[in-house]
Request: fold
Amino acid sequence: MRQRRERVWRAVTGVVAAALVGSGLVVAAAVPSTAEQPAARTWTVSGPGHSDLTAELNLNAAGELRLAVDRGAAPVLLPGRLGIRTEQHDLTSGLRLVRRQDRTVHDSYKMTTGKQLKRTTTMREATLTFRAADGARLGVVLRVSDDGVAYRYLLDGPGQVTVDQEVSTFRLPTDAKAWVQPYEPSYETERTETTAGAANEAQPKTCSGDTCSFGYPTLFEVNGSFVLLTEADVDGRYSGSHLEHRDGSSSYQVALADDAPVTSQGPLATPWRTAIVGSLDTLVGSTLVDDLAPPSKVADTSWIRPGMDDWSWLSDGSSPGDFDRQRDFVDYAAEHGLQYTLVDAGWQEGWVPELVRYARARGVDVLLWFDWNDLRTQQQRDVWLPKVKAWGVAGVKVDYMSSDSQAQFQWYDAILRDTARLKLMIDFHGATIPRGLQRTWPQVMSVEAVRGEENGQNPTRDIFLAFTRNIVGSMDYTPTWFSRPGRQGTLARELALPVVFESGWTSLGDNPEGFAAQPVAERYLEQLPTAWDETHLLSGGPGERPAGDRQVVIARRSADRWFVGGILAGTSDTMEAPLGFLGKGKWLLETVTDKGNQLQRTVRTVTAKDTYTVLTADNGGFAALACPATKGRTDCDEPVVTAPTTVLTLDPTTATAGPGTTVKINARFVLPRGDALHDVRMTLDADRLPVGWTVTGADVLAGSLKEGKTLSGRFKVTVGKDQPGGAVEVPVSVTYADPAGHKAPPIHVEQVVRVAIPLHGTIYASDQSFLTQTNGYGPVERDQSNGDSGRQDGHPLTIGGAVYDKGLGMHAPARIDMDIQGRCTRFEAHVGVDDEAEGQGSVTFTVLGDGRQLAATDVVRSGQAAVDVTTDTTGMHTLSLVVGDAGDGKNFDHADWGLARITCAD
Reply:
């Protein structure tokens, strides 16, 4: 047995080492000691190089482990208990040392997002192996870098390992200043300044008795140093955790999500319990959470592109359901060089593909919002993610997860694998905090986990966020709503937020009209990147200054330009920006400040020896941009290059073709005016056609296409012999090199030929495309009941105990329109309120043909047997199925069209 345990233990420690080596790390030679060492009671690990951090692990007489951290000669973490309990073993006491192994870990890697794209880290590591009284082993891996300390447990149990509890504890002096957030899985609660011992007094909502729960990251000030507590490397092997604190205590204990055990296959390496330690500048620049995460699982990241998007939901809540209004946002993005438009909740499947085509021709990519319930299962993801990818959507924003459970992290694992495979970027909203996720899965552009702009404004909160939440990863705050009614804070402060807050996708919160009213802000935002080469804290802190205010000034570099943002919470004050971060020579410094209800821009020449001061208004701020002051340069702007207007025409635009027949398509592409296009390609994408369809006609290429010249192509499409009736869009596209350069993806111009395949025989409504659809709650469901708010979350269609395997599930008020081509003669269905309404709900059913009523029911109530609906549809082109709420509100109005079928000509 002992030999077997030795082999397993070597395997689990080898897993960690192999992961490091596989990521390109250089690992210094380990210094092992294989003999048991019962005499050793205290072990230290010091940081690399000139680091002033030291971690001390102590084993007391009871065999209990405690960890303390010093910075210089001053303690920053008092001895806090370590240990873990599994279903099989108590590894919290009675421990004795078996061996210690030391090494130095060097790591270099690149990011697609974040405060620093190229990263190098060095960490000293000690792995200490302990044995419990029952012979079970516990490994503690302890790492110290120049910006913090982290530890994790290694469990060598073969087979399934169930962790019941950690006793992992961070201890701080009770009078240490603390900035804490009551724990909720959405991380959208407000932070409070307090002390370590008195934290519970301000946070009663998350308390049980004298114990309260707090979310990561949690900030403390101890002996002139700052400590930010969080965790790293959490995935579906484990759950997330938070901190629990007993009133008046100095201890903050790690608690697993929902106080539930986690189960994994052994051997198991737990997440890193992490303390970022140092000055505030060290914390703001720290990459420790990412340094501890696994290396990237995505080899080719060329398709991943951070950028700005305009996002209509915040300022114009109903607009995501309005195609024309979304075009306004696309036009604004195109005019001002924004990379994306984000379409939030309310979009319609019927018009999104057209919007995507419209946007891409203008050099703008579309991002699409999803309720996570629409993507909860593998089946749902296998339907929706390839579909939106085929539409040309560049990425998705997924919302409402709000859980730190192991099951939820397993879902994160799954959707991250799926989006990486399909080359879809992703933003998690209503989500947990980043724990190194963006290093491992570089297509993650941002994560909410913050009480952001959509949850009201709080200038003090924003200062806290710069020193807590945004340190550990991209933060989807959704800033810059200049036209916000009752705005708290000045215009310049609002403009500074997307500099102070880092996010790979930065979703701008105002509408085109609000931005147009602030042309100085527009000019600044046109220049602003969203991923950075370097980040520095210039001044400020989370605590109140003598003047009674709080402030923060942060500088971020992209190539040879520096962007500076400063925000103030409190009364008018002077903000300082020491310019020592600038290089040698003279620099142009453009500054945007408030001037009444407008913004003003000033330009001056500075050097790194200067300190720039700005007098700001109450809850004010400023934004600045610095660049080398080369001869003749008068500003720091880089040109905003937009896609030219081009024209792609197809002949025909519509066609009717039966199975096995061919449609000929002529395509013409022209640049009416402007500089020549380069690397031009015209193609018909056969991969986006149904199985069985074939295409003939080669791609048409042109190295350049000059103004007024035409690129022509000819294609033939043959309909599959087994193709059912309905409509299929055949896409023809032209791509050309983005004139903006900078590794931007090609501009994509696309049009479609809508091929109608004659409907024939008996068809089911649930198998047809909808021209339009509306639903009172969630989407219209195919072959299942309405269910809940997500797509494909219903149950078998059931009316009065009768189950129907085909049909439509709706929620009043609802309507779908479908094209029946004037070829169908009869519609029939069995209708009623689905049994999932459990005795509640009342609806009406109406059938329309070309807008004229063909059939209607009386009020149908829950529990009633299905009602037969039959009507003649001869000569009709548009068939509409409508559900009403019977005049008593829509609650529980789950309406089923069981076996809804249409009889068409053969």
User: Anything to note?
Assistant: The chain has twelve helices and 63 strands. Residues 2-22 form the longest helix (21 residues).
